[in-house]
Write a structure and sequence with these properties.
With 587 residues, the chain is α+β, with helices and mostly antiparallel strands. The protein has 17 helices and 28 strands. An 8-stranded mixed beta sheet has the order 11-15-16-23-20-19-17-18. Strands 1, 2, 3, 7 and 8 form a 5-stranded antiparallel beta sheet that branches. Strand 2 and strand 3 form a beta hairpin. Helix 1 crosses helix 2 and helix 6 packs across helix 13. The longest helix is centred in the first third of the chain and has 27 residues. The radius of gyration is 28 Å and the shape is globular. The N terminus is likely disordered.
């Protein structure tokens, strides 16, 4: 597709821009040591070991140097080198981090490649970097770029390694695209869920509890409850059975599943006084597999769908923890579908249908999907027959065609036990978020010796679908805070109505309205403080509550309420019943 070519071209442009940044940094700091410089969503970054700490004022200086390099139209030339020669060259250049990377690549049997920048006509070498590619033809083809920020980053993401300085940048094909992206960044700052989470009194974190363990205040807990009850109702309607498992298990369970020792985010093992080794669960699937195996199953029971909204615990590195987007305590709307191989297609289609229904409820109507499949050149690395994989991959691709406005296939990104679908949505300001995951698993049914009795009376092996619709609820809450800019729709708002009496004389009437709304299951708060009316209204507006009920002498006499709409800023006096008839509680 032409769209796919554009995406590839943009990635090459950004990768080339990262090299230009590294060249500019070396011009400014000749003794700089280079780390890595990959592309990321919407841009690139490069890590450096520098003689001094960078300041924001350094970024425009580096941009100016980058523009000079771009103007020279330096040609990118690929060179392959034996590992020993590459190591010797990098040692002479004082690039110790690159030496380490070459040694790692050599152990993996990878080809060692460099990209050298040459001045056109003279072929004078200007810069060289260890790199797999790809790149634009020359620096003159790099589009419009901007350096965005400076951050700290441990070498290889390991806290035991040196702290490097990371420079983030973005690059686009046109000035209009760059401007639109920068405007989007400014809008994103206003929507920052960490700031709005405090303003709306949703969640907090404390040093004593620790990074990555968010604490939900009453309003945040209410929002979480609304989401859990909503997704639970959707799943019950579609035949899911809800289960409940503990938050810990013996280490042996995760050894059997293959996670222990291989999954870096597993929490440390805890040993009891009796010598039993237990661990906080980082995933729910092994527990659900044990539930499946606790009873005999017939083909008539399948598909069997176990669902649970439950927490898992993962040791994310402290430098990677970020508000609600990256946490260590994660509530998942997790499901495991136990299916016959013939049911995979219909089950995938059902999950994608539910996904579309759920996201539409939140105003997400643009979908993109990534299908991760095998590396076709190395089928021996994957569990299951070639025929089974081809069938499964075809089913996943056909499924996303019906759901997504756009989709793409990533070869070699599948896990060894099955292909996967990741669904991305676009929020109110055009940002992309990966949420739903559907992982097809042929391996764990073997690990756990799962069976069902087939129509022929013989034991057969099921397949498993690992599915999370909302994904991590904490992350989803962060996404919708930013999507709505904190102004939740009425059905979702943790506080739907705030009652504000004009003065203390009208508190009793305000309490009566409060009680009537509570009986009707409206989520309501009463501000009967001694603050001025103006301050009460400003506080409610600041908290983005959908409706404010102002009650004074006239409203008390007429048994009405003055309804202020946060979205429209309009006010209308009406009997309480009229409001209830048009709104009521939406659960």
């Amino acid at each position: 597709m032409s769209k796919a070519k554009e995406i590839i071209g943009l990635d090459e442009m950004r990768h080339s821009c990262a090299h230009v940044l590294a060249q500019a940094v070396l011009k400014m700091f000749p003794e700089a040591k280079l780390g890595i410089g990959p592309t990321i969503d919407d841009g690139f970054y490069y890590d450096f070991d520098l003689p001094r700490t960078l300041i924001p004022e350094d970024l425009p200086i580096l941009e100016k140097k980058m523009k000079e390099i771009v103007k020279q139209a330096q040609v990118f030339v690929k060179k392959e080198e034996p590992s020993d020669k590459a190591i010797e060259f990098l040692k002479e250049a004082g690039q110790s981090y690159k030496v380490e990377l070459v040694k790692d690549l050599a152990k993996q049997g990878e080809t060692i490649t460099f990209y050298e920048n040459l001045l056109p006509n003279t072929n004078k070498p200007m810069f060289v970097d260890l790199c797999r590619g790809g790149h634009v033809e020359h620096t003159g083809k790099i589009g419009y770029f901007k350096l965005l920020k400076i951050a700290g980053a441990y070498w290889k993401g390991d806290e035991k390694n040196p702290m490097l300085q990371r420079i983030y940048g973005t690059c686009w094909q046109t000035q209009e695209e760059l401007d639109a992206y920068l405007n989007r960044l400014e809008e994103a700052k206003k929507r920052d869920h960490k700031i709005l989470g405090k303003q709306l009194r949703l969640f907090t974190t404390t040093p004593l509890v620790g990074p990555g363990y968010p604490l939900f205040l009453p309003r945040g807990a209410e929002l979480k409850r609304i989401l859990e009850e909503y997704i639970t109702a959707i799943k019950r309607k579609n035949g899911y059975k809800f289960v409940c498992i503990p938050h810990v298990a013996k280490e042996d369970l995760y050894i059997k599943s293959g996670h222990m020792g291989k999954y870096e985010a597993m929490m440390p093992v805890m040993e009891t006084s009796e010598g039993e080794r237990i661990v906080m669960k980082a995933m729910n699937c092994p527990h659900h597999f044990e539930l499946y195996n606790s009873e005999a199953h017939s083909y008539r029971e399948l598909p069997l769908r176990y669902a649970e909204n439950t927490a898992v615990y993962r040791y994310e590195k402290s430098g990677e923890v970020n508000g609600l987007f990256r946490v260590r305590s994660i509530t998942q709307d997790d499901t495991h579908h136990f299916v016959t191989h013939d049911q995979i297609k219909s089950e995938i289609e059902m999950v994608l249908r539910i996904t579309k229904e759920v996201y539409s409820k939140f105003g997400f109507n643009k979908f993109k999907a990534r299908v991760s499949i095998r590396n076709p050149e190395h089928p021996e690395k994957y569990f299951g027959s070639d025929e089974l994989w081809k069938k499964a991959e075809s089913i996943l691709i056909e499924g996303v065609k019906k759901l997504a406005d756009d989709y793409f296939i990533k070869e070699g990104e599948a896990a060894f036990y099955g292909p996967k679908i990741d669904v991305m949505i676009e929020d109110a300001i055009g940002r992309e978020w990966q949420l739903t995951t559907i992982q097809l698993d042929f391996n764990q049914p073997e690990n756990f010796d799962m069976t069902y009795t087939g129509e022929d009376g013989k034991p057969h092996r099921p397949a498993v679908l690992h599915v999370a619709i909302l994904g991590a609820l904490e992350r989803f809450i962060g996404v919708i805070i930013e999507h709505y800019s904190g102004a939740f729709p009425y059905w979702l708002a943790p506080v739907q109505v705030k009652i504000v009496p004009v003065a203390q004389d009208f508190n009793e009437y305000a309490k009566k309205v409060y009680e009537d709304l509570c009986i009707a299951n409206v989520r309501v708060e009463l501000d009967d403080s001694r603050d001025s009316l103006g301050k009460k209204i400003r506080n409610s507006e600041h908290e983005k509550i959908p409706y404010i009920f102002v009650v004074g002498e006239k409203e008390m006499t007429d048994k009405t309420v003055a309804v202020r709409d946060y979205a429209t800023k309009k006010q209308e006096v009406m009997p309480l019943k009229k409001f209830m008839d048009t709104h009521g509680a939406v659960e």
